[in-house]
Design a protein that fits this description.
Elements (H helix, E strand, L loop, with lengths): L8 E3 L9 E6 L10 H9 L2 E5 L7 H12 L6 E6 L1 H11 L6 E5 L14 H8 L3 H6 L31 E6 L7 H8 L5 E6 L12 H17 L18
Parallel strand pairs: 2-3, 2-4, 4-5, 5-6, 6-7
Antiparallel strand pairs: 1-3
Length: about 250
C-alpha cells in the first residue's frame, strides 16, 4: 500500500482561534521548505493554516502527493501559493483541475530570464533579496546555489498555464526583480481571466521574503479576507473621498 509523503512544514493557527483558511506553499527552484518559515509563521498568526511542500523540480510526483495530502479535509478557502517555478507548477495544477479556491503567484519566472553576470553566491543573494535578515537566513543548506538560473521544465512553461487558471489569482512581483522583469510578468498575467497584480517597490525576486515582507504578508491577508467574504473579491476597506467645502 502506498502512503502519501508527509508534509515538509506546517504552521498552525493560534490554539484559541478557529482556522480561517489553508495555504499550500510550493517553493521555487532549489529551495528547501525552511526558506518559508518566516512567511508561514507570520501568516499563521492571522489564523490561516500554512503547509509548505517540497521543490517540485526535484520530485514532481512527491509534491503532487503532498499537495493532495494537504488539500484533504482542509478548512477553506484553500489557496495554492507558488514561488518562482512553484508559481508555474501551482498554475498548472489548478489548470488540470486540482482542488483550490484561489492561487497566489509570486516571482513568476520570465520565459527569457536575465542571465547571471557571474556564478557568485553574493550575486545570487543580490538577485534574490535585499533583506539583511533573509540574506543571513538562506545559505547553501537551504538554497541550492545556481538553481535559480536552472532550466524550467518545458511542460510547465508552455505559455498557457496562467490562462487556464479559472480561479482568482493574486499575483505579487518585485518591481526591481533582476531576473524576471515586472513587464514580463504583466504580459504573462494578461491572459488570466481573474487576476490582481501587485508590484512591490524595491523588491527583488524573493518577493515574499524581501525587505517589505510585512507589507506583502499584510497584502495577502487582506486579499484572503476578501476571498473568504465574497468569491468576487469585493473590497472590504474602501478609501472614501473627503468632503470638499465649496462654500
Amino acid at each position: 500500500m502506498t502512503t502519501a509523503p508527509t508534509l515538509a512544514l506546517t504552521f498552525l493557527e493560534p490554539s484559541n482561534v478557529a482556522p480561517r483558511g489553508t495555504l499550500v506553499v510550493i517553493p521555487g527552484r532549489g529551495e528547501q521548505p525552511e526558506v518559508y518559515r518566516r512567511f508561514g509563521t507570520r501568516i499563521s498568526v492571522d489564523a490561516y493554516r500554512v503547509h509548505v511542500v517540497d521543490d517540485p523540480t526535484v520530485d514532481e510526483h512527491r509534491v503532487r502527493q503532498q499537495v493532495a495530502e494537504s488539500s484533504a479535509g482542509t478548512v477553506g478557502p484553500l489557496v495554492l501559493v507558488g514561488l518562482d517555478t512553484g508559481a508555474l507548477f501551482a498554475a498548472r495544477l489548478v489548470g488540470e483541475g486540482a482542488q483550490a479556491d484561489a492561487v497566489i503567484l509570486a516571482g513568476l519566472p520570465s520565459p527569457d530570464p536575465a542571465a547571471p553576470g557571474s556564478d557568485s553566491w553574493e550575486e545570487e543573494l543580490d538577485v534574490r533579496t535585499t533583506c539583511p535578515t533573509h540574506r543571513g537566513h538562506i545559505s547553501a543548506d537551504l538554497v541550492t546555489p545556481g538553481a535559480l538560473y536552472g532550466p524550467i521544465p518545458p511542460e510547465w512553461s508552455d505559455g498557457g498555464a496562467i490562462a487556464k487558471v479559472g480561479r482568482p489569482i493574486l499575483a505579487i512581483h518585485g518591481r526591481e526583480d533582476p531576473i524576471s522583469t515586472l513587464e514580463s510578468a504583466r504580459e504573462s498575467y494578461a491572459t488570466a481571466p481573474r487576476v490582481e497584480l501587485v508590484a512591490v517597490a524595491g523588491a527583488h525576486h524573493d518577493v515574499l521574503n524581501d525587505r517589505s515582507h510585512r507589507t506583502v504578508a499584510a497584502t495577502i491577508v487582506l486579499w484572503l479576507e476578501r476571498l473568504r467574504a465574497d468569491n468576487d473579491l469585493a473590497p472590504i476597506a474602501v478609501l472614501e473621498p473627503l468632503a470638499v467645502n465649496v462654500g
